[in-house]
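yo

u said u wanted the structure for the complex thing, so here. seqs first:
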Amino acid sequence: MAVTITDVAKRADVGIGTVSRVVNGGTNVSISTRNRVEAVMRELGYHPNAHARNLKRQSVATIGFLFMSGQRQMSDPFFSTLMAGLADAAGEMNHDLHVASCPHAEHELATLERLIRGNHVGGIVLTDTRLEDPRVGLLQERAFPYVAFGRVSAEAEPNALPTVDIDGHAGVQQAMRHLIAQGHRRIGFITLPVQLMCTQDRLNGYLGALQAADLPLHEALVILGGLSEDEGRRAAEQLMALSPPPTAIVCCSDVLAFGAARAIEEHGLSVGQDVALVGFDDVSLAAHASPPLTTVRQPIYEIGREIVHMLVQRMRGAITTSKLIEPTLIIRQSTTQWKPTPLL
Amino acid sequence: MAVTITDVAKRADVGIGTVSRVVNGGTNVSISTRNRVEAVMRELGYHPNAHARNLKRQSVATIGFLFMSGQRQMSDPFFSTLMAGLADAAGEMNHDLHVASCPHAEHELATLERLIRGNHVGGIVLTDTRLEDPRVGLLQERAFPYVAFGRVSAEAEPNALPTVDIDGHAGVQQAMRHLIAQGHRRIGFITLPVQLMCTQDRLNGYLGALQAADLPLHEALVILGGLSEDEGRRAAEQLMALSPPPTAIVCCSDVLAFGAARAIEEHGLSVGQDVALVGFDDVSLAAHASPPLTTVRQPIYEIGREIVHMLVQRMRGAITTSKLIEPTLIIRQSTTQWKPTPLL
DNA sequence: ACTAGAATTGGAATCGTTTCCAATTCTTCT
DNA sequence: AGAAGAATTGGAAACGATTCCAATTCTAGT
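structre next:
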């Protein structure tokens, strides 16, 4: 049915070895032969069979992306942007991107095992790394190429494990300095799920900024959040119920901030004027929210691309160094209209 | 290096044929043999090599998803939700999901060709179908299994081409009836890109609703939009510049509506009170916008699942009928606080 | 013209499955 | 007990590529 290398060889009146050499870079083939074979390939519409090739080569130009559909809020714009970066870079490097969904966390190791052992993928992209992440353990043990988005261990030498990460500590500190400079003294903080590595990192930024400014830490101002708008809303409600409530809130994601904005408004207060609000990510809606959201920008698309570049290098056996990316604070109206003496 | 079927056969002291039968459903194998083989498989950590299997079977349990990273706004939450549905359903049906990005539209046919001819995928999912879509032409010609999200031709017998679609006509009509019942007479309409099939469909819903209510059509109230917030904002600016401006706006996507909300506010008007606003999709942020957005809900996640179910059936050679899904209007504050005689 | 060496070419062996047919073992019936 | 038929089992052939080695053709130097 399909056109095989043998069909091409017959038609071009050469051996299959020659065709193979033409397909793979054309070394050791005379110009005239190469041209003839290439013409025939085009004429017949030949495309190498991916499975035969991978079987023989014992390697796959496919990148696996473990997708926790159950955990992460599916509609989080963060994800599709990351995916676009992964997919584009993979395409450019002639690699395929394979998305494996794990609706249930218990299956994640089994899925990983199947992908690796069955030769479905030649490398893995992880996100939402957790403390003592069992996936990392498995990959390390198997010496299987992978790159994690998010650091993997607080203690380990950063280059020991291949990661691309955002400097959440510095990002939150920038946000905090901005707020403190505007006169805020009671600043709430809403985190991501506690088991994520980045949660600790960003929290440290919060604590560090307080210390640097000689402000006291009120534990009630730190609320354990999550991944969804609802959790942001719930967390902000807790903050607004304090007396006095904070005059500013830093959220560890834009999605949390959108939820928090709702809670603030439901308390009859205005985001920006009564309570300053800062997000994290800079998803595209942040600029179009009302008021536009001040946020710590992660270049998510570029991070996706960087992850793939690093992973492909590793799949080729190269050694790579981890990357730590500096986020930038994007200042918008949600923090610039605060009135220092609100009538609370 | 890896564990092969031969390793398992040797260890379990059976022939490779027997192991193969155990792996594939275990027909014609005695209970005791099956148990023994399964124990060995677990002991050695055997997983069938995907490439050897696919090569022999001449079929692939992999679904291809053509992802136009350049066109569609990457961060559109719509997409990640759809992907989650695709990925989850594919996983449940033991299929892999393969995402191919097409940063440039010119490459889309070449990419499709490569995926099909190279046996990378056994079926294709298309979205954002266009009038006279060349991708559909290619797939039909090759008789390759595919399912499109979005109808493919206005004229063709709907079951001739395999699609899952939302009844955009009915969805917009619901929204229009709701607005008209509240007393709105000048209703703006912001479309998606003109070449998408669903644009015409939804526009027809708008026109039909006007006619049913005996309202005149003002062409200036229909603005060609796009896919991003920016385009929604620009389109709404055009509408607000009319005199008099519309008292309500229907947008063909939530993302457009978020942009439109910004434009309305920049005109010093309040969304909900001065201008009613309706979106389309019901992405999760819609409920958390301020005010919460009235919108036509598409069950995107379920649609993703349905597409995969249909596609897998087709990959197995079954004949399927197209599905038309009824959307539901979700009424929230962006349309319920309108004051019939605004002081414009 | 002849030959050594380089450049090009052909094709067998191989990757790890599935599948089919023939061989073997087990049942059951007379 | 013996035979017919059913149930199990083993393994060769094939899928379509890559890769390597041997064979052939070319080139250039004498």
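Residues 77-92 of chain B form the longest helix (16 residues). Residues 9, 14-18, 21, 28-30, 33, 52, 54-58, 119 of chain B lie near DNA strand D (CB under 10 Å from a C1').
cya
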